[in-house]
Amino acid sequence: MRSAGFVGTRWLGVGLASVLAVVTLGLAATGRLGLYVNPESAWFAVGMAIVVLVGAALSFTLPLGAEADHGHDHGGAYEPFAEHGDASDPVAEHDHHASHPLAVAATTIGGVAASGVVLLTLVLPPASLSAELAMSRDIGAPPLFAGSDVVTLAATGDTSSFGVGEWATVFATATNPDAFDGDTVTLTGFVTPGEGTAEAFDLTRLVITHCVIDAQPASISISTPAGTPDTGQWVTISGTVTANADGRLKIDATSVEPIDEPEDPYEY
Amino acid sequence: MTATRTPGVEARSRAGRQGTWAALGLGVLVIGALFLIDAFAPSLFAASLPTRAQDGLTLAISVLIESLPFVALGVVLSIGVQVWVPPGVIERWMPRRAWARRAVLSLLGMVVPVCECGNVPFARGLMMRGFTVPETLTFLIAAPIVNPIVIITTHQAFGFSDGILIARLLGGYAIANLIGWLYSRHPDPDGLLTDRFRETCELVVHEPGGRGRRSLAQFVIELRAVMPALVVGSALAGAVQVLIPRDALLAIGSNPALSIVAMIALAMVVSICSNVDAFFALSFASTFTPGSIVAFLLVGPLVDVKMLALMRTTFTTRTLAGLVVVVILSAFAIGTVVNLLA
Questions:
Q1: Phi-psi region of A262 (alpha: psi -120 to 50; beta: other; left: phi over 0)
Q2: Lowest CB count within 10 Å: B55, B67, B226, B317, which one?
Q3: pTM assigned to the model
Q4: Is the interface score ipTM higher than 0.90?
Q5: For B196-240, what is each residue's pLDDT tens digit?
Q6: A213 contact residues in B (CB cutoff 8 A)
Q7: Nearest one of B193, B192, B186, B161 to B290, comparing CA atoms
Q8: pLDDT tens digits, residue range A24-43?
Q9: Contact residues on chain B for A99, CB-CB shorter than 8 A
Q10: Taking CB atoms and an 8 Å limit, are A81 and B19 in contact across chains?
Q11: 3-class DSSP state for residue B342?
């Protein structure tokens, strides 16, 4: 019973951390870490994952239960494989707090839930967020983290590196929409419902600052004579930026090409 | 026993060394097996979770992958202060008076490069070293805000507009010292801690063996304490995000008082790392009042769902309830002041 408890201690601590470290390194090795965190911080994630795994391998040299050992009766000598069979073992004395049935239940449920989540992480293939989630997060305001320098940059005419996120910022904040009128663009994103007409939809992309939990949708209006693709479908569109009479910008698409979900579904 | 080595002891230590290598080999094997499972299991299970569950899991995994390095760093630093820094080295630099010690500790976050998830194991290390509970709480509350990376990103996001950066820094510092002062008046500070943590303190103080062995023991103990809480907290954060529609929170709009409440609720739900929450808040700046943004930036790093799960490893539910009330009321007050001034 007690050694089962010690194995549980190892699994819930070092074990869970090791599985996550392995998943991190696996994603990094296959170039898919960007599905969860901004690749700019990948070096840190990878470095610390290696630290965790080295520590985990070394922790096997620590005898089971040694971490719960008070060390009396051993004269302070370093005896890695000494027997701890004495009945007055300090662990037994200390276990009485945890033996309250509610506490045991809470520990067990928490441990099982945590193990379940981590094992799912290990065995399921990585996935990106769905279009439904992107739509439910749309608060009507464009993500502004790109900052005002994007609009300045855009005004100077170099928009070749712009993605949906940058264009959404420009569309929402440009004070001189005419400056962009006629720019040709090629953009990739997924389809979300636009203003409701059959000839218009929104091209959306999730933009990430640090990790997927801060993902925010950026979208731009597209008008196309060819009809709207299904919601959630990934498309590459080419077209020109046009300004409405009231100064709002949109893109007149000349082609809308359905594609498979790209390997890097997010913008950073 | 160590002075006169008998042949029997020599033989045993040789056997022990062989055993150590065998154990290390076993560890490497297990990790190798994990890599194999990671590489091949996904092709056996097609992704068949319902969309919403998959989104929740994706969000939870992203928080986990993002916070694991910080937790690992926190554990390493915790081992550092607990095992490797000789007694008295930190203590010599600390002021004597309790309030001054707390004031200095709340600035410790400036030099300790961990964000909020890593702070929990580090703070546990401080307490095992003998820092008092109110002092450690002060550090734990201040560090996620009074932190160079957080200051830089908040400045990048907001500059000095509307006093958001200043209000965040001073507010965080003030709340931390307020909490430190409140809990320093507690008659029995040890009563703020969970039984389990107090037992752990007992154990590590009397941990036998050399520094390497104690470090490993600390590594095992700290990960055991933090990892389940981190996983459960991340899963909760992911689940809450897919279950509570965001527009329900945001419909409250630009009302000066209600917007603060809404942003506080949002901050507790989304559990974003304090390093980047400024950018997240920025996109709400156009529709929400500056005071509500400040409240978001104050509450999020201190008492969000993930942090509460992590802190529960160390502090009792009662303590955390008090903490949440103080933080929310203070954040609301500071947010209101910012709204009145801005």
A1: beta
A2: B317
A3: 0.78
A4: no
A5: 888 887 777 666 677 788 888 888 888 887 888 888 878 877 887
A6: 59, 62-63, 66, 237-238, 241, 270-272
A7: B161
A8: 999 999 888 888 888 877 88
A9: none
A10: yes
A11: coil
